[in-house]
């Protein structure tokens, strides 16, 4: 048996080798025939077999992987012959195939340089610029892998003759790019001796294309030769090229100069670079607008690179120059120079838009240039203009850089809150898409980075944030760009960390449920479902949570549309990811199992795929009854399922469920990390319930204190009314008694003594209670009302007399009640003395009459 299997394996291997050899032979034969056909029919322009020849060249990497030796011996020579007369498409394909062979490392680098390098060098100077560039890219990649000796003999030595002025333009351009690559392969003394003379020669070439190309290669050459040679050789060449008559040469010199700023010391920057930069800035608006776009793009890097050598005047000048670029082309929109406006060409408008876009790109760098502390004074007006620019590309760039700006401002981030709302409400979805990428980080900086420390005060500092977020979502929903809508919904999952639970519940949570039910794009529905689960996870009111859970079960899990029931299973998957196992088992385990009886096969199939995750939420022995329900549903599926596809998946799921281990209530080593994570989720859920209970108790206590305060205030109001009535009646009686009697000082003293005795005997029991009530209501009631108001209880009163009285202090209230009692005591004593005087006069008259009669 073993011998037969071995023979069979050998036969299979030999068959594969024979097939490979046949393929190589067929390819070589085809290329040989095509070459002769092309040579014969070249004058007639026959290209009937180009497609098949290109296919053979494209399969060269495959042949090299299968049998490199035979391919190099039989196929590669034929490819070399065909390329002499091949068309553009075959040349491009060959360049890519040669590069692929190098990257695959099918052969050693020595073999590759011996077999492929000569073919690459022969096709570098192809008459077609695209083909020449393709072979050049392959050669530059090969140079990275070649040894130095091979580069010196095969590339550098021929390069000396190829770079001469007598060679073709294409040859000199290729030489420029190769020298930029070679500078990093050799030591600085070899570069100085063999490469730098060629560099100087090409920088003085008669063709501006060559000067431009060589100028752009000065950057890698400078990085290869070091700082000293750069200062003595490269910098003078750059200064001369910056004054070249060709605008493209000047542009290349300027960009290279900016990129090499780090290699120049402060003296070179101050004496050489800064005057050149100032010259570029002055000429950009006058004689050389071609450099304007590049200048605006590199201005941020330039300003920060030269920051240490700027005088205050130069610093201000460059800042004003940047501000001028930010509003370039907006004079008409801003209403300036209406009488001097000229019709701008389309090219000028595009150029000005590019300049403002580059200014928006450099805005974070300019914040560093002026210092974030000076942002509001120096750059806020420009920031406002760029965020409200009429062109979408400018606002798009500002939206991309908004997060960087917010990070740089740090505690001053509150100054750009209005612009955040503006960009959220932008009419272009491209701007919204760019802003949403870092929306969670931006909102977090807005909330935590401002001066305020309390979350409520921070939320109030962005009053239009929630309307702007809802508007942005609705605009994305009504557009055809569903990816932007999906991205927006995913980022909105950060809102529980930004705004309150009630705001999310009333403004966003129900909207997510509506999207799940009505949207037709599956990724959007899933994004909404996950965000809804996050909102549910951080909701702080149990009543609201139960309402949402009930809607999910009724409208999705028990919905009429099978599509909604599928989304219910997606939602349950997110719930298992975000919530604890006990939460899922409590609310969603049984509704999920009910879908085993769903009439639609696709729903049952999706449920079967979800069952292993469902089983992983169980804990034994706590959820033993749920495990029994799961096993019962699986048995029913096995026995009653009629759909073949569903039954196949059910059987596969049963095998997977049998292999699963159920976690216990106690920790196990295998599930230790998962159990810890689940325990943390459960702890947070219990914490939310406890916080909600504490809030309810606090509200109940505040309600009770408010009711007690209401009762005390009502009692005080009644007592004040009765005391005011007593005061009025007693003052009237005292005024009547004083007008009817007139006595001397002794009588007043006797009356005062008697009134005091009456006040301590007859009036004390009655009016002391009133005084006590008045003092109690004025002191305890009023202070308790103040404490209640301090806690936030708002009380309304309808009695004006009590409202004016409550503004005073408790001492005044007590004094008024006691003074009314003293007045009542005095009036009562005066009336009593009057009655006693009348009785004495009558008794004297009776005694006189009796005496007369006796006499």
Automatic annotation (TrEMBL):
Keyword annotations of the record: Coiled coil, Cytoplasm, Phosphoprotein, Repeat
Composition skew (Polar residues), residue ranges: 831-840
Source taxonomy: Eukaryota, Metazoa, Chordata, Craniata, Vertebrata
Compositional bias of kind Low complexity: 728-743
Major localisation: cytoplasm
Domain of life: Eukaryota
Protein name: Serine/threonine-protein phosphatase 4 regulatory subunit 4
Region (Disordered): 696-760, 824-855
Membrane-traversing stretches: none
Amino acid composition bias (Basic residues), ranges on this chain: 846-855
Listed GO MF terms: protein serine/threonine phosphatase inhibitor activity
Signal peptide region: none
UniProt HEAT repeat ranges: 195-232, 234-272
GO CC term, one of those recorded: ciliary basal body
Quaternary structure (record): Serine/threonine-protein phosphatase 4 (PP4) occurs in different assemblies of the catalytic and one or more regulatory subunits. Component of the PP4 complex PPP4C-PPP4R4.
Function: Putative regulatory subunit of serine/threonine-protein phosphatase 4.
InterPro entries documented for this protein: ARM-like, ARM-type_fold, HEAT_type_2, PPP4R4
Biased composition regions of type Basic and acidic residues, renumbered to the chain: 711-721
Subcellular location: Cytoplasm
């Amino acid at each position: 048996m073993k011998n037969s299997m071995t023979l069979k394996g050998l036969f299979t291997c030999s068959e594969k080798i024979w097939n490979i050899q046949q393929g190589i032979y067929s390819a070589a034969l085809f290329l040989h025939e095509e070459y002769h056909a092309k040579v014969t029919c070249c004058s007639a322009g026959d290209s009937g077999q180009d497609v098949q020849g290109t296919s053979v060249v494209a399969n060269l990497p495959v042949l090299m992987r299968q049998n490199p030796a035979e391919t190099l011996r039989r196929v590669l020579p034929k490819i070399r012959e065909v390329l002499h007369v091949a068309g553009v498409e075959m040349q491009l394909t060959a360049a890519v195939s040669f590069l692929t062979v190098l990257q695959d490392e099918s052969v050693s680098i020595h073999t590759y340089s011996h077999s492929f390098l000569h073919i690459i060098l022969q096709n570098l100077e192809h008459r077609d610029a695209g083909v020449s560039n393709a072979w050049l890219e392959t050669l530059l990649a090969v140079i990275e892998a070649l040894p130095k000796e091979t580069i010196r003999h095969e590339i550098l030595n021929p390069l000396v003759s190829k770079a001469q002025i007598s060679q073709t333009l294409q040859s000199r351009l290729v030489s420029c790019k190769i020298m930029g690559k070679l500078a990093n392969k050799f030591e600085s003394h070899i570069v100085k001796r063999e490469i730098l003379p060629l560099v100087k020669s090409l920088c003085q070439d008669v063709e501006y294309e060559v000067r431009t190309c060589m100028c752009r290669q000065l950057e890698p050459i400078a990085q290869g030769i070091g700082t000293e040679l750069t200062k003595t050789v490269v910098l003078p060449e750059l200064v001369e090229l910056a004054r070249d008559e060709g605008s493209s040469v000047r542009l290349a010199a300027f960009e290279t100069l900016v990129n090499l700023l780090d290699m120049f010391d402060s003296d070179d920057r101050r004496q050489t670079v800064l005057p050149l930069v100032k010259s570029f800035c002055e000429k950009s608006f006058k004689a050389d607008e071609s450099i304007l776009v590049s200048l605006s793009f590199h201005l941020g890097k330039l300003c920060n690179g030269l920051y240490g050598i700027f005088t205050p005047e130069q610093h201000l000048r460059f800042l004003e120059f940047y501000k001028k670029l930010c509003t370039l082309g907006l004079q008409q929109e801003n209403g300036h120079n209406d009488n001097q406006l000229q019709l701008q060409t389309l090219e000028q408008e595009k150029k000005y838009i590019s300049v403002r876009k580059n200014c928006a790109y450099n805005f974070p760098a300019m914040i560093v240039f002026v210092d974030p502390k000076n942002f509001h004074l120096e750059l806020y007006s420009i920031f406002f203009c760029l965020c409200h620019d009429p062109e979408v590309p400018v606002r798009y760039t500002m939206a991309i850089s908004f997060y960087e700006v917010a990070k740089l401002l740090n505690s001053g981030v509150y100054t750009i809150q209005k612009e955040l709302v503006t960009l959220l409400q932008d009419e272009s979805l491209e701007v919204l898409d760019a802003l949403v990428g870092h929306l969670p980080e931006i909102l977090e900086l807005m909330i935590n980075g401002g001066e305020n420390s309390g979350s409520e005060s921070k939320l109030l500092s962005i009053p239009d944030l929630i309307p702007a977020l809802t508007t942005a979502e609705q605009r994305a929903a009504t557009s055809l760009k569903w990816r932007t809508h999906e991205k927006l919904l995913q980022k909105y999952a950060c809102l529980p960390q930004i705004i309150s639970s009630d705001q999310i519940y009333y403004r966003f949570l129900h909207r997510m449920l509506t999207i799940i039910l009505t949207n037709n794009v599956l990724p959007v529905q899933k994004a909404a479902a996950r965000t809804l689960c996050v909102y549910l996870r951080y909701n702080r009111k149990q009543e609201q949570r139960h309402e949402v859970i009930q809607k999910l079960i009724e409208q999705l899990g028990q919905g009429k549309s099978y599509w909604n029931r599928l989304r219910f299973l997606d939602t349950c998957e997110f719930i298992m990811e975000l919530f604890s196992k006990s939460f899922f088992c409590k609310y969603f385990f049984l509704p999920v199992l009910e879908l085993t009886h769903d009439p639609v096969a696709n729903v049952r199939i999706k449920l079967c795929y979800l069952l292993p995750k469902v089983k992983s939420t169980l804990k034994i022995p706590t959820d033993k009854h749920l495990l029994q329900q799961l096993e019962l549903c699986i048995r029913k599926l096995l026995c009653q399922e009629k759909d073949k596809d569903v039954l196949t998946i059910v059987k596969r799921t049963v095998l997977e469920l049998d292999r699963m281990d159920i976690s216990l209530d106690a920790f196990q080593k295998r599930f230790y990390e998962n159990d810890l994570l689940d325990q943390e989720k459960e702890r947070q859920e219990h914490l939310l319930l406890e916080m909600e209970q504490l809030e309810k108790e606090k509200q109940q206590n505040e309600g009770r204190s408010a009711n007690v305060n209401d009762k005390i205030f009502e009692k005080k109001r009644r007592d004040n009314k009765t005391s005011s009535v007593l005061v009025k009646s007693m003052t009237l009686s005292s005024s009547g008694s004083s007008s009817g009697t007139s006595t001397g000082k002794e009588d007043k003293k006797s009356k005062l003594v008697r009134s005091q005795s009456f006040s301590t005997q007859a009036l004390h029991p009655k009016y002391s209670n009133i005084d006590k009530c008045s003092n109690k209501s004025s002191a305890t009631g009023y202070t308790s009302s103040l404490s209640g108001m301090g806690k936030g209880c708002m009380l309304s009163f309808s009695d004006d007399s009590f409202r004016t009285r409550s503004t005073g202090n408790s001492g005044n209230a007590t004094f008024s009640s006691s003074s009314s009692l003293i007045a009542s005591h005095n009036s009562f004593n005066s009336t009593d003395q009057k009655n006693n005087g009348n009785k004495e006069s009558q008794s004297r008259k009776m005694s006189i009459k009796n005496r007369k009669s006796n006499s």
